[in-house]
Specification:
This protein is mostly helical. Among the domains are: about 230-320; about 380-445, no CATH class. The chain contains 22 helices and two strands.
């Protein structure tokens, strides 16, 4: 029977250690069917299964920190801790408290995060203590690595670990808190914030950072701030301990507005999606700020919001006004008399231009995705007019190409068919796929 050499085992161990949680879970599920296997495959299966169990326990133990580590905070919407934080802490805990770690692994098999909170919180407390006094302990390597990632990171991680019990309890209520605020929920939020502030003066904002990191829409943490301080002015928040939490959202708006105004349609559908996503998020963040905070024109944030809104509205309107020209470049036409005024007749003198098509795809993707923010952003009327003109232009274009193909002597039938498929694709982007399929069925008929 073949066996793995020491070097092979080391390679496999290294790969398992460095794999992300999602990869370990997938691999564990895939290898579970190898229950009767013996030899190297059985060994690998057991190694992966053991790692999956530890990852599950680690995830539950450090759940209050998980959303802050690595890429989760990279969009600037919440504070970010070094990406290797959880792995470093877990390794130190396994050396320092192996029995408690084993208990956490066993607990994670049959208890959810709330039921096993006492076990997990004890490990968080031990890790916080270890990071504050790491000299000569198993936490020395973790503290050094964290400090190399960011000066002061070890102390910051320890501060977040102090909040683990409060954070864990608040996280269990978070969905209710941000979905619909009631007097009872507002009182619970204020109590949680007060309890956190009792730990240290800056622990309240730190609790909100944890909760923001757990939200798919981190700016909704503003609703919690609105419960703590009812409709505070921007000047008040600017001078309070919550300034950093709010300004991180304002900075995220700035970044998204900058990326949106730099939108290059040459990137095709992906670029259009990115532009629309940045616009949607910026509008949502601004709307939440306006709902939660009393923004004054002469306040520290009111003028900044006005400027941000002006920038994205101006850019959105400029894009909408360019759409017809961009579509004309992708579906070229030549002027011809048709009733009142002029409308373009399709021309097939040249093959489709892939660059022009990509630009049209980007612009029409943006057009469709901008439906939501158009009303809030103040360009809904312009958007509706652009769509009305575009509908008329595309319908005429499709009918004209079909008429050409049905003729006794069609003009460039191969190119005409190619342009018709491009038109169908563009229609699918800003209307829906059903409309595109109708065009394709008409062409096939």
């Amino acid at each position: 029977m073949a066996v793995l050499s020491a070097s092979q085992l080391q390679v496999i161990t290294t790969l398992i250690d460095s794999a992300p949680d999602s990869a370990i879970r997938s691999l564990d599920m895939a290898l579970a069917s190898e229950a009767g296997t013996e030899g190297p495959m059985a060994l690998i299966r057991d190694m992966v299964s053991s790692e999956a169990g530890e990852r599950r326990a680690r995830r539950m133990t450090f759940a209050p920190l998980a959303g802050l580590c690595g890429s989760s905070g990279s969009d600037g919407s919440s504070k970010a801790l070094p990406g290797q934080t959880l792995a470093l802490l877990w390794r130190a805990l396994k050396t320092d408290l192996p029995d408690q770690v084993s208990l956490a692994v066993a607990t994670s098999l049959h208890a959810d995060e709330e039921e096993g909170a006492e076990v997990y919180d004890a490990l968080c407390a031990a890790a916080a203590t270890g990071l504050r006094k790491p000299e000569g302990t198993s936490y020395a390597g973790a503290a050094t690595a964290l400090e190399k990632s960011a000066p002061g990171a070890a102390a910051e991680v320890a501060n977040f670990l102090d909040l683990a019990p409060l954070s864990r309890e608040a996280m269990s209520k978070l969905t209710d808190w941000v979905s619909r605020m009631t007097d009872e929920r507002a009182a619970a939020i204020r109590l949680a914030y007060r309890d956190a502030s009792a730990i240290s003066p800056d622990a309240g904002p730190r609790l909100l950072e944890v909760l923001a990191s757990r939200l798919d829409e981190p700016w909704l943490v503003l609703r919690l701030i609105g419960a703590i301080h009812e409709k505070p002015t921007d000047r008040f928040l600017h001078g309070s301990e919550l300034r950093e939490v709010c300004e991180r959202i304002l900075d995220d708006i700035d970044r998204r507005v900058d990326e949106f105004t730099a939108f290059d349609p040459q990137g095709g559908v992906s670029a259009g999606n990115t532009a629309a996503t940045n616009l949607i998020r910026a509008v949502a963040e601004i709307a939440e700020l306006e709902e939660t905070v009393d923004l004054r024109k002469d306040g520290p944030w009111g003028g900044r919001i006005i400027k941000q809104k002006g920038l994205f509205t101006k850019k959105a309107e400029a894009l909408l006004k360019r759409i017809e020209d961009v579509v004309n470049a992708a579906l070229p036409v030549k002027p011809s008399k048709y009733g009142k005024g002029l409308r373009g007749a399709p021309t097939f003198e040249r093959a489709p231009d892939p660059v022009a098509v990509a630009r049209a795809e980007a612009m029409l993707t943006f057009l469709e995705k901008s439906r939501g923010p158009a009303q809030t952003g103040g360009f809904a009327s312009l958007r509706a007019k652009v769509i009305e003109r575009l509908d008329d232009r595309m319908d005429h274009y499709v009918n004209d190409v079909l008429d050409n193909l049905r003729g006794d002597e069609p003009d460039e039938p191969q190119r005409a068919s190619e342009f018709l498929e491009i038109a169908a694709g563009l229609i699918g982007l800003y209307r829906d796929e059903m409309a595109a399929q109708i065009v394709r069925r008409r062409a096939a008929a």
